[in-house]
C-alpha cells in the first residue's frame, strides 16, 4: 500500500491536477475536516464506488467554529488521515490547504439565506456556524466542480443546508447523504469521541438507545410527549447534559407537535458529556 500519497496545498495546483482528468468522467468530492474515522471512510468508499475520480479535502474551517477553544482543540491527524485514504484507494486526490489559501484576506463567513433551515437546533446554539459551513462548501464545490459531493447524515441539518446552498447558489452537483456509522455500542462516529474517557464512550450509547425508544414512542404519541419523555430520561442520568431534543419535519426542519400523514420526520439531539458536545439523529418514519 502506498502511504506517500501527494497532498495538494494550493487551489492552483489542485486545478492543474483536475485539468489532467478526463472531463467526461464523473468526479466525487468528500469534504472533511480531517481526524478521519470509519464514518468518513464510508463516505470515501461510496465516492470511490460511484466516481472514477475522487477528491478528499481536509480543512479545519475556522469560520464554522463559534467557540475558539473548540477550534484550537480540533484534532489534526494528517498522517493517519492519509493512511486511511490510501487504504481505500491510492488514486484519490487529497486537498489540504492552509487557512491563508482559503481565506487570504479575512477569516469571516459569507452570509446566506438558508430560508430558516439554519435558525433551529444547531443554528440556535452555534452562531454563524452554518454560514461558515456554507462558505467553505461553496468554495470547495466551485474549485473542484464535482459531479457528486458526499456528506454524512450524522450532521443531517448540515446536509439539508448544503442541499439548500446548491439550490440558492445554482451549483450543479448531486449532494449524496450517507447513513450514520456507529461504534459497536451505538454511539454515532465522530472525531469528538476521541476526547471521551473509555468508560463514558461506552455509556454514551445511551444517546442512541434513547433515540431508538423515542422512535417507538413517536409511533404511539405526539412529539410533545416524546420530547418530555426524553428530557426526563436525561434528568435521571448524571454524566449527560441534554442541550436539545427536537422532532422535526425532514424538509423544513421545523419542530413539530403532531404528526401529519405522508410527512417524513426525524428526531435530533445534542448532548454534553465530559464537556464534549455530541449530536445524533434518527429517521422516525
Ligand atoms: O462535516 C464537516 O466535517 C464539515 O462541516 C465540512 C462539511 C467538511 C465543512 O467544513
Mean pLDDT: 95
CATH architectural label of the largest domain: 3-Layer(aba) Sandwich
Q: Strand order within the widest sheet?
A: 1-4-3-2-5-6
Largest sheet: 6 strands, parallel
The number of domains: 2
Residue share in helices?
Answer: 25-40%
Run of helices and strands: EHEHEHHEHHHEHEHHHEEE
Distance between the termini: 43 Å
DSSP summary, beta strand count: 9
If you compute it from the alpha carbons, what radius of gyration comes out, rounded to the nearest whole angstrom? 19 Å
CATH superfamily of the largest domain: HUPs
Low-confidence runs: none
**Protein structure class:** alpha/beta
CATH class of the largest domain: Alpha Beta
Small molecules bound in the structure, each named once: pantoate
Summary tags:
285 residues, alpha/beta, Rossmann fold, Pantoate--beta-alanine Ligase, Chain: A,domain 2, six-stranded parallel beta sheet, 38% helix, globular, binds pantoate
Layout of helices and strands, plus pairs?
Layout: E1 7-8, H1 11-19, E2 27-32, H2 38-50, E3 53-58, H3 68-73, H4 78-88, E4 93-95, H5 99-102, H6 122-125, H7 129-144, E5 148-152, H8 156-168, E6 174-178, H9 198-203, H10 205-218, H11 223-235, E7 240-249, E8 265-273, E9 276-283
Parallel strand pairs: 1-4, 2-3, 2-5, 3-4, 5-6
Antiparallel strand pairs: 7-8, 8-9
Bound molecules: pantoate.
The site of pantoate (PAF) has 10 residues, from strand 2 and helix 7.
Question: What's the quick description here?
Answer:
The chain folds into 2 domains: about 5-180, HUPs (Rossmann fold, 3-Layer(aba) Sandwich); about 190-280, 2-Layer Sandwich (Pantoate--beta-alanine Ligase, Chain: A,domain 2).
Amino acid at each position: 500500500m502506498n502511504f506517500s500519497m501527494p497532498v495538494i496545498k494550493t487551489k492552483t495546483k489542485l486545478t492543474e491536477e483536475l485539468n489532467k482528468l478526463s472531463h467526461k468522467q464523473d468526479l466525487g468530492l468528500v469534504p472533511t475536516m480531517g481526524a478521519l474515522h470509519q464514518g468518513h471512510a464510508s463516505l470515501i468508499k461510496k465516492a470511490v464506488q460511484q466516481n472514477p475520480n475522487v477528491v478528499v479535502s481536509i480543512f479545519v474551517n475556522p469560520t464554522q467554529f463559534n467557540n475558539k477553544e473548540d477550534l484550537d482543540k480540533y484534532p489534526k491527524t494528517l498522517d493517519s488521515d492519509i493512511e486511511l485514504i490510501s487504504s481505500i484507494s491510492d488514486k484519490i486526490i487529497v486537498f489540504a490547504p492552509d487557512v491563508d489559501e482559503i481565506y487570504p484576506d479575512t477569516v469571516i463567513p459569507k452570509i446566506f439565506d438558508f430560508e430558516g433551515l439554519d435558525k433551529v437546533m444547531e443554528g440556535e446554539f452555534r452562531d454563524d456556524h452554518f454560514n461558515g459551513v456554507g462558505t467553505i462548501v461553496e468554495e470547495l464545490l466551485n474549485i473542484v466542480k464535482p459531479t457528486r459531493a458526499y456528506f454524512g447524515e450524522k450532521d443531517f441539518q448540515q446536509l439539508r443546508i448544503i442541499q439548500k446552498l446548491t439550490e440558492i447558489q445554482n451549483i450543479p452537483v448531486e449532494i449524496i447523504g450517507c447513513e450514520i456509522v456507529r461504534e459497536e455500542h451505538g454511539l454515532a462516529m465522530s472525531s469528538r469521541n476521541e476526547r471521551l474517557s473509555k468508560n463514558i464512550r461506552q455509556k454514551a450509547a445511551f444517546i442512541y438507545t434513547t433515540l431508538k425508544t423515542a422512535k417507538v414512542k413517536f409511533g404511539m404519541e405526539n412529539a410533545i410527549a416524546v420530547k418530555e419523555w426524553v428530557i426526563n430520561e436525561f434528568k435521571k442520568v448524571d454524566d449527560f447534559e441534554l442541550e436539545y431534543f427536537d422532532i422535526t419535519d425532514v424538509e423544513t426542519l421545523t419542530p413539530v407537535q403532531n404528526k401529519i400523514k405522508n410527512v417524513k420526520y426525524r428526531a435530533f439531539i445534542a448532548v454534553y458529556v465530559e464537556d464534549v458536545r455530541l449530536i445524533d439523529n434518527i429517521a422516525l418514519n
